[in-house]
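User: structure tokens for this one?
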Amino acid sequence: QVQLVESGGGLVQAGGSLRLSCAASGLTSSRYVMGWFRQAPGKEREFVATITWSSGSTYYADSVKDRFTISRDNAKNTVSLQMNSLKPEDTAVYYCTVRRGTAAGATRSEASFASWGQGTQVTVSS
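Assistant:
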């Protein structure tokens, strides 16, 4: 069972930056896809970005492309989400997640991801 722990959320003004981190334990091979989802108040959880554990291939939602960057550190078993040019509509609880696979863009379905972190709040003020 993969366990995930997020950190790095907080309050930032519009146009600012935040970096989220996710520490993963229990990974048994390199055939994983790590990802971030987010859930704003009153809305469904939505896909943000994914990265393959082996090659580092990435896939982004259109709403964050060119502003957010997902990366991984295999030696430290961590996945990060660098968020720049933040907007008030980026306000949400951000969740780290993982699924088995080797293609970052194979699916953005929440149901395909097996393990989830507890979430970290990101608030962007206008």
